[in-house]
Amino acid sequence: MAISSTFSAAKLDSLLMNYCSSSSASFSGAYFPYQQQMKVFPRPNYGNKGMLSRNGGVRCEAAEFNAALGPQKIDPSKASALSALQQLKTSAADRYTKERSSIVVIGLSVHTAPVEMREKLAIPEAEMPRAIGVLCGLNHIEEAAVLSTCNRMEIYVVALSQHRGVKEVTEWMSKTSGIPVSEICEHRFLLYNKDATQHLFEVSAGLDSLVLGEGQILAQVRQVVKAGEGVLGLGRNISGLFKHAITVGKRVRTETDIAAGAVSVSSAAVELAFMKLPESSHTTARMLVVGAGKMGKLVIKHLVAKGCTKMVVVNRSEEKVAAIREEMKGVEIIYRPFTDMLACSAEADVIFTSTASETPLFSKEHVKDLPPVSSEVGGLRLFIDISVPRNVGSCVTDVEGAQVYNVDDLKEVVAANKEDRLRKAMEAQAIITEELKQFEAWRDSLETVPTIKKLRAYADRIRLAELEKCLSKMGEDIPKKTRKAVDDLSRGIVNKLLHGPMQHLRCDGNDSRTLNEALENMNALNRMFGLESDLSLVEQKIRAKVEQSQK
């Protein structure tokens, strides 16, 4: 079976691991996986201490922070007269209250962090809604989603403040995993707005996978949306982002041949096993598969494709194994319950593990008493563990006669056909660039929504005040029918007056000309009616969150 290439080597080469020193937080670098290899795409300008900004340039957050403080100073003599909130508004350090919310991804992947760290951060699917709720309870996080797979743990958020949002999420990750913040910062990557969007599109398209073009990641992105249905924290921006990422993943696989001959993590695991076994034992090696879920089923399929006609499958129930047996006609698939796992391991030369267990199934104590395997299979019992968290404890590597491989070891397998995979990735990037523009336009179109709400509220305040004056002049014994008629009249007048401005503010983002006009109209209305003098929407949200946390 031909094995597709990966960009893991380039990922590691292009990874930016410099930090921006600041007393308030630790910063990490960001990376762009393919731009170093595909010369047609612009390469980010990496600095010594940097973070990727929205336009791809690098900025030093601490330097920018300090530079901004310079020209904006508060008169000490007047400072005491200002409320705490007013000081926040006039302080350059808190200029974010006038900014648009940012989409941020805080992530660790197979390209940046070892499996030992990723498994501690992994979040089971059943825990996703709770995790989203906790994340959105943080002061500067408005929306959230978690993409947790065997190769990555990425948290996507809409942050009311980039710096504070990243700090809060990183501290939450540390608290839930027990990993120090400094260690997470060493291995994490941060991407903002357009860069974060592009990254998720590449993930969904299979460009960021260990195995380029693998299809399982698209199903995992789709599952994030499904798991977040009805969860308050999966809001308009993040939900729209993930749904658009699903569209991108489908387009890339339909319009390019990136998936042609593409392998999965499961097939790479099988290929790795056959690379390590002597060729003479390929048809005689005894195979054991622990777990008959999606990954386990794929392992079985690829073993059959390699010529295996007999294998033992250990699973909690026989139902899934029976379904696989029915599908794989002519192959002897023997079911065993989990209670027989060690007994079956004693009779196996190669053991594949792919269960959702949060604790190791195999420890040093379990493996050291297993009988040795024959020299015909190389004298080593192979454990191929593609689970995160791992099913095989790292201590098993100390056992003589045992060799353990995990998902990080699959890089060795998927390094073939590099040029062909690069060509396919470039074709996919053209689609991603097109879809990225559409998503950014849609998100820009949302900027007019606060102005629409403010203008409506402004007009309604005037209507109610004038209505009250009118009714007071008409006396207290006004019939209900008359009162309602006057109220309806005032509403009708306001609605007709607002109809024109509202129409010129609404835009779906598909037409760039219409979008630019809508944004110009928004700025004009803000100036004419003084709508910007109100508390900014971001500021209101932050104040509400802080007040809620203090209750």
Automatic annotation (TrEMBL):
Chain ranges of the Quinate/shikimate 5-dehydrogenase/glutamyl-tRNA reductase domain: 277-413
UniProt-listed Pfam families: GlutR_dimer (PF00745), GlutR_N (PF05201), Shikimate_DH (PF01488)
GO molecular function: glutamyl-tRNA reductase activity; NADP binding
Pathway: Porphyrin-containing compound metabolism; chlorophyll biosynthesis; Porphyrin-containing compound metabolism; protoporphyrin-IX biosynthesis; 5-aminolevulinate from L-glutamyl-tRNA(Glu): step 1/2
All residue ranges annotated as the Tetrapyrrole biosynthesis glutamyl-tRNA reductase dimerisation domain in the record: 427-531
Domain of life of the organism encoding this protein: Eukaryota
Uppermost EC category: oxidoreductase
Gene Ontology biological process terms in this record: chlorophyll biosynthetic process; protoporphyrinogen IX biosynthetic process
Gene3D superfamilies found in the cross-reference section: Glutamyl-tRNA reductase, N-terminal domain (3.30.460.30), NAD(P)-binding Rossmann-like Domain (3.40.50.720)
Entry EC number(s): 1.2.1.70
CDD domains the record matches: NAD_bind_Glutamyl_tRNA_reduct
Keywords: Chlorophyll biosynthesis, NADP, Oxidoreductase, Porphyrin biosynthesis
Residue ranges constituting the Glutamyl-tRNA reductase N-terminal domain according to the UniProt record: 106-256
Catalytic activity of the protein: (S)-4-amino-5-oxopentanoate + tRNA(Glu) + NADP(+) = L-glutamyl-tRNA(Glu) + NADPH + H(+)
Family: Belongs to the glutamyl-tRNA reductase family.
Name of the molecule in the record: Glutamyl-tRNA reductase
Biological classification of the source: Eukaryota, Viridiplantae, Streptophyta, Embryophyta, Tracheophyta
